[in-house]
Every structure is written in structure tokens, then in C-alpha cells.
Amino acid sequence: MYPSLLRRSKFLSDQLRTRVFIRLMGGGPRSFHGGLNKWQWKRLHEKKAKEKEKRLLDQEKQLFQDRMRSQIRSNLAGQSHPNLNPDPNKYNPMSPNKHLKALADRFMKDGAEDLWNENDGSLKPPSDEQTEFVGTNQQPGSIHSPVDLRKLISEGRHVSQNRENGFNFVKSRDYSMLKDSGFESGGDSTKPLVRRQRKFRINESSSSDDDEDNGFVNDKVKNFVGDSWNERGGVSNLRNVSDFMKNRGSETVKQRRFQRNESDDDEDFEGGGDRRGRSANDIGSRAALGKYDMKKTRRVPLKELEKNDLANEVELIRYELGRKKKFAGNEGDKEEEDSILSKKRFDECGLSPLTVKALTAAGYVQMTRVQEATLSVCLEGKDAIVKAKTGTGKSAAFLLPAIEAVLKATSSNDKPRVSPIYVLILCPTRELASQIAAEANAMLKYHDGIAVLTLVGGTRFKDDQRRLESDPCQIIVATPGRLLDHIENKGGLSVHLMGLKVLVLDEADHLLDLGFRKDLEKILDCLPRERQSLLFSATIPKEVRRISQLVLKREHAFINTVGVGCVETPAKIKQSFLVSPHKLHFQVVHHLLKEHILQAPDYKVIVFCTTGMVTSFMYLLLREMKMNVREMHSRKPQLYRTRVSNEFRESKCLILVTSDVSARGMNYPDVTLVIQVGIPYDREHYIHRLGRTGREGKDGEGILLLAPWEEYFLNELKDLPLEKFPLPQIDSETNFMMEESMSKIDSSVKEGAYHAWLGYYNSIREIGRDKTTLVELANQFSESIGLHKPPSLFRKTALKMGLKDIPGIRIRR
Ligand SMILES: Nc1ncnc2c1ncn2[C@@H]1O[C@H](COP(=O)(O)OP(=O)(O)OP(=O)(O)O)[C@@H](O)[C@H]1O
């Protein structure tokens, strides 16, 4: 396992040997400019990225205000504004067309190039001819594989065309042409060549998230759309695109790229210090630095010409939407669009026959779209970040290539001294880890000698260690905290991890959140750098795309099966929201459940609450109201959680009241309704919670219950198809029963719920900033749970929360 020199050295202790080995494998810490280590370096740049994000948000806010002003003006002028929804019962989510227009406006604003990051996902080809151009072998009318037109066009010469499955991914590029194109002599010749080449590498990174890249890509896409659209009055045949690319000539393109880089060169790098003249290698790990080693000022005002081109691109997206609507008229096609399955079968894609046999046994014959889109890339060993809607089979999409990697590694002749762990899958919750391990085991049904181990909190650490020693495993599914405990406990796990081939982050955006980041960074430090990393989630915000460089190699694929301009939630989930004062929330939940049970005899409902203590309160209340409920949150012991999770998976006619521990990844089949009480932490939480229903392309329903002051959150969901749900009439008998039931709940539970509620909303920026209002609202909540006098807080807690001298807060003596 160790290099022989290291193995033979008698002078090194085991621990030191491991450390030296980690350094040799490239995993250890290193220092950066200004004496920073790589994580400090990374955080520094994250901070800057956040500031940038904030500036953009301000721009968006400005736009929104402008729009509101114009609506008000037109109202005053007696005209009905097109954006005003005439139906007062309907929340005013923008129609797709209006949303597009708003998007176009945003994109056209000076300095909004960054927003193009959103578009680095795939566009579906507008016509079969286009499909042909990008090198797919799909038949007309077949399921349309997402194709990243922007990337394709920008990289016409370098696209790797995978005719097998019709998806295209970027290969690493040859930069020698830059020299040939006269780039060398064009710029400031006093600046070192190495540096300029490095900049090109940044721009040309396979991830099109780069602002520079976007600028470059946009130029070409926009020009293409502009020319071909105007000529033909619609989206033109992509063969013309190819002609266009040729006619356009690479000169223009090179020139543009050259211009961008010229201006870049005049700016300092972020992170301080003049790094000119340093080679790429001097700057540190590419994987660690990612895209943060870029120049400071990246905004270039858009030219007038580009505005037209942007509008044309928007037209292209509009065309896509129009085409979708057309599909909607045709039932057969619609079904095909709604289905998560593609036409490709598992036995066609080079998987081991024993795996295919196991898949068939589990009922998997055809791949889902995300599986089709990712499998070939992942099997090639490339790094990838994958976005696909909830319930579309992402777990199998990463498990299959991971299993193949194990098979390949075990079949090689090298017989390592320490049995290596080849695959590490990290996920945020214990239940999800067990679920993934179970799915992996189902796929390994016919493979002898490959074992899966779960390492999660809430179980005995010693048991884990015993299992690790007695049953060597090749695949570990873990939550970050427990894995880190093992690594830090020096039980030898680090040595086993030295042979790691594949790292998977399921729910990657969540794992890269601040809550998990520190653990993750420490874990990454112990993993070999030569590995394949796969990041999967249904939501990948822009910020996460940037920070994903922490894990991924620079040349990674971004596979987005959601598609630009498409709704991020499954089409078959009916989404509504309901606004009611706090004091009615529990009655409303009870009413919604009763109504649903009447309509769906095989009901299976999940009620999400904001915190564990509020979950507990809701559970007790509904139980008192004679409903068939279970509770699930992090305050419950693991054995209980596992039992409830299994029971809910298997049952019908059951209600699960839960906190966000069940929000991500959990695959409870046939959930008929998801109710979210109170604002979710953010838009991503909303999407994941909602995604517990309507899985595998099935029907589902989601209701978001808000207090009037929480309505602002709807703004974050304005592109999702939420409709307003009328406030139900609660009869006096229910009110009476509710009061009775509430009075039976122990006051310690109520106090805990109040404290937790306060803590949760205090952590939400929009409300946490205004402490006085927060306390007023908390006191309303307190009344709604039957506490007429709000419970007191420990002085220390009040201080920590910034609530010490706020009127309405009582301090415990
Ligand atoms: N090829 C397939 N054929 C049939 N069913 C499949 C296939 N792939 C996955 N499934 C089923 O689809 C369901 C959802 O899969 P999975 O839990 O992997 O979704 P997901 O995309 O990871 O969702 P989430 O975003 O919520 O984590 C599961 O019940 C799984 O068994």
C-alpha cells in the first residue's frame, strides 16, 4: 500500500508514515500566498463571491421595484398592467413568458454577465435537425436528451460527441492554437506567457460557470442566434449553425477571447498580492483553488449589439416553451415528456452483466433520463456535477458507476496490503445513508465479495470499528460527522481511504453548506487527489457551483437535466400555498389532513415543521386529535428513527410529522401529500421537501402554509407553479377539540417549541434582522400553541440570539 521506501523506513512511526503518505498522495494541507492555508484561501474567496452575489441580488431587487412601480403607474393611469393577475385568489407567479421577459431584462442590465451562469445548463434541441447536428442518434419524437447548446457552440471544435447516448461532454483542450493565433504577440509581451495561458485555462474550463467563459460563450451563441434567427424568422436548422460557425471564422472568436484576456491581464488577482509571473503550479492546487484564482473586476458592460443578441437568445428559449406547450396538446407526447424514463436500457451501456441482472431483479430495465445523461461520463472516470429533479433516480446514477469502479479496481492484479475502500458516498442524514446502502446492496446482489458499510451517527462507535476490522468493505456510505470521527480517531480508516477511487456527494449543495463544510474540508484532506468525484443534487445554486471546485477537478462535466427555463420541480406535483394567521395553523393542518384522507383512501402524508421541537408539538397535537401519525426529527433516538422510517416506507394511511431530517433524498414511495408549515429555510429546502411526493413521475400534491408576514417568501418561488389555496372554514367543534388537545400537551414541550421557533426564525435573515418584530411574532406563535405568557429565556441564550433587551423577551431568573 505504501511506497516501498516509506514501508521500509524504520525511523517513522505508523502515524508519521501515514502523514507522509497523505502528503505524497497530495492530500495534505499546503500554504498559499500570505501564509494562508488552502481552506483559509478558499474561504477568503468564498467571501468575495458572496459579496458579488449580494450585489447581484441588489440589482434584481432594483429591477423588481422598477417593475412594481411601472405596474402601479399603469394602474393609476387606469390601464390594467399585463403583469397584474386579475384573479385575487391566485398568487401572482409570473407566467413563463413574463418570467422570460423579466429574465431578459435582468440579463441585459449592465454588468449582469454573471447571471448567465444560470444558463450553463442544458437547452433541449428545438428541432430534430438540431439534435442531428449535436451528434445524437435519437429518432424524431424520441425523448429529447438535454443538450447544452451554449457549450456545444462555444466548443464546436472540441466537443466530444458521444454517439452512444446522445450526450456531449467537454474534453480537455489544446491551447497550442492560442500561440498560433498570434495571441503571443498581441498582448503585453512583458507579461509572462505562463500566466496568460493559465487564464485561458480558466476561461476554457469545462464548467461554463465562469463569468469569462460565459462572456465568451454568449458572444458566439448570441451571434449565432442573432444571425440565423433574423434570417429565417425562427430557430434555424443547426446545419446552418455549423455553417455559421465556419463562416464566422475562428478569427473573430479568437479576437474576442483575446480582448477579454487582455483586459483581464491588467487586473490583480483576488486574494491580494501581485501574483504575476508565477506559474500555474506556483499558485497551488487547482482543485482546491478552483475558480477563485481569477482576476478582480470581471464585469464588462454589455454592448448595445449584445442586447439584441440576448433578446434573440430569449426568443430561442421562448420557442422551446412554445414547443412544450404544443407537446402538451398531444397526450402521447406529453406522457413521454412527463415520464422520468428514457428509452435506453441498462443492458446497452457496458455495465457488468451481474449488475444488469440485479437491476432487472429490482425492476430497473430502462434508465431514467438522468441515468442516461450521466452514466457514460461517469463510467469514463470523469468528475461531474449533476442536477436533476427530485425522484428521478439520481442514486442509481451514481451507484452504478461507483460499483463499476470497484469491480475494475478489484479485478486488477495489484493486491494492496491494506484492503482499500474504493468508494466513499457522503450524504447529510442517517436515514439517507441507510437508504443508499440498501440500494447499493440491491445492485450488488450477484456480486460476491463486495461489501457496503454505513457509518452514521447515533450508533455505537465501537461497533463501527469492529465491523470495519472484521468485515473489509469496498464501499462506505457515511454522514460527514461520523466519518470524520473515525478519521480523527486514528482507527486506521485514513489508510483504507488511501486507495479511494470514487467520492460521491449526494445532496451536494447541502454538504457544501456552511453547516457541513468544515467537516467536509477535513475529510477531503485525507483523500487522495487522484480520484473521481461526483456531485449530485436536485438543486445546485450558483454559489454551490463555485464552491464545488473544492471537490471537483477543473475539467469536470456539469450535467443539468432540468433545462434552462424549465420549472425545477416535478411537473406532476400540484403546488399550492395557503396564508393564515399563526393562531389557526394547527387547525388548518388538521383540516387539510382530514380533507385529504377523505379524498385519498391510500393516503400517505408528510408534514414538515420548522424545527424538531415544533415537530414534536405538532405530532402530539395530531395524535391527540386521533390521527394516525408518527414523528421523526433529530431529537429522537436512532433506533426509533430507523423504525419509523422503515414503517413509513412500507405503510399506507399514515402521516409522518417531521423536521428537515426527512427533507432530502428520502424515497418514501407513493407519498400523496406534503404539507410545509412555516417558511422553509430557503428555496432549495422547499424544493427538496416538496420532492418527497410526485416521485418517479407520479402525481403528487404540496401545500405550503404561511403566516401573513411570511408571504414575502413566495417571491423566492415565483417561477414555480404555486396557486393560492382558499382559507378553509374551521368549524367550532374542531376548534373546541383542538383547544382540548392542546391543553393536554405538556408545557415543557410547548416551551421547547417556542424556544426552537424563536431560534429558527432568528436565523432567517429577513426576519432575524428585526428583533422587535421577531419577538412580537414569536409571542403570537406562543399564543397559538396555548402559552398565553411567552416562556422565559436563559440570559446567555438571549444574549447569544441578540434578544436580551428586546421588549417582550422574558429572561429567566
Ligand atoms: N431506472 C429505473 N427504473 C425504475 N425505477 C427507478 C430507476 N431508477 C430509479 N428508480 C426509482 O426511482 C425512485 C427515485 O429514485 P431516487 O431516490 O434515486 O431519486 P433521486 O433523484 O435521488 O431523488 P432525490 O432528489 O429526492 O434524492 C426510486 O424509487 C427508485 O427505485
From TrEMBL:
Tell me where in this chain the Helicase ATP-binding domain is found.
375-558
Motif window: Q motif? 344-372
Compositional bias of kind Polar residues: 133-142
Q: From which source organism is this entry?
A: Populus tomentosa
EC top class named in words? hydrolase
Q: What InterPro entries is this protein classified in?
A: DEAD/DEAH_box_helicase_dom, Helicase_ATP-bd, Helicase_C-like, RNA_helicase_DEAD_Q_motif
Domain notes for this protein = The Q motif is unique to and characteristic of the DEAD box family of RNA helicases and controls ATP binding and hydrolysis.
**Helicase C-terminal domain location:** 592-742
Tell me the GO molecular function terms: ATP binding; hydrolase activity; RNA binding; RNA helicase activity
The EC number(s) this enzyme carries? 3.6.4.13
Q: Where is the DEAD-box RNA helicase Q domain?
A: 344-372
- Respond yes or no to whether keyword Nucleotide-binding is given for this record: yes
Alphabetically sorted, this entry's keywords are:
ATP-binding, Helicase, Hydrolase, Nucleotide-binding, RNA-binding
Q: Which reaction does it catalyse?
A: ATP + H2O = ADP + phosphate + H(+)
Chain spans, region Disordered: 122-144, 240-288
Q: Where is the composition biased (Basic and acidic residues)?
A: 245-262
Q: Which family does it belong to?
A: Belongs to the DEAD box helicase family.
PROSITE patterns annotated for this entry? HELICASE_ATP_BIND_1, HELICASE_CTER, Q_MOTIF
Which Pfam families is this protein grouped with? DEAD (PF00270), Helicase_C (PF00271)
This molecule's function is given as: RNA helicase.
Name of this protein? ATP-dependent RNA helicase
